[in-house]
Amino acid sequence: MILTVTPNPSLDRTYEVPALHRGEVIRATGERMDPGGKGVNVSRAVAAAGRRTVAVLPLGGAPGALVADLLHAQGIEVAPVPVTGATRSNIALAETDGILTKINAPGPELTAAERAHLLDAVRAQSRTADWIACCGSLPRGLAATWYADVVTRAHADGTRIALDTSGPALLEAVRARPDVVKPNAEELAQAVGRPLATIGDALDAAERLRALGARAVLASLGADGQLLVDDAGTWYGSAHVDTVRSNVGAGDASLAGFLIAGGNGPDALASAVAHGAAAVRLPGSVMPTPADLDPTAVTVTADVPVDRVLGEPAV
From the candidates 149, 252, 294, 307, which is the catalytic residue? Predict the structure, then answer.
């Protein structure tokens, strides 16, 4: 079982539009409403693969109730922590050329009692978990050290933990030695305080996170593929994608694929790449099923193309 923890979940509305023009009326060609948040998306991808997952998340108000209903409808077990503030609602505008514009609300501020209940829920649910995936931003009311505390508790209970966050929360948490962290290129650049122009730069940044304490780094580089760096070695994975429909949740699908495949080594990296490539071909934040995957399009190698220039350099 894969347990996900999403401290700042959302109700996500995605509109597909021909093009985005400021100040004009834009008629959407498609729309979706999904439960949102990085950990929520990981649970959705795990459930789509036919595996058991439990989602721990604070929920409040009508948007929170709708998030829970949508998760239940997708076969996901929900361990809600009731909060007084309403769960945030986010908007994504997906253009036909693949450009995505997102508007993310801040979310509610958790009280001291709600913070304690959230930690208790994670510990209670983790007793039967093979992995805990802690994902996303921290809501107001949670200190930057919160993820680090969860990592320490998980390891004390003998549970492996994956982390997908950014900024001070990431830097604090890596010192607690999470089993794997999954930054994207922008988050890598922010963590090491320097721009990334090549895959070699991304590799150096991943090694820096390992030096700070992360046991393994799974780095998503968008269209430029993914890197896996751990004690056993370094691998680079990529997949050809003809058409990008939406990249919402693609990194979360990748993390789910990685954990589903065991969470270590080149086979898990191949699964991560396959899941991420499948996700970008789907609308909104739809998570791929096994039928959507194309393992034959995936290449994994220990020969990392360090001189390859990133299509979208990270600063």
Answer: 252
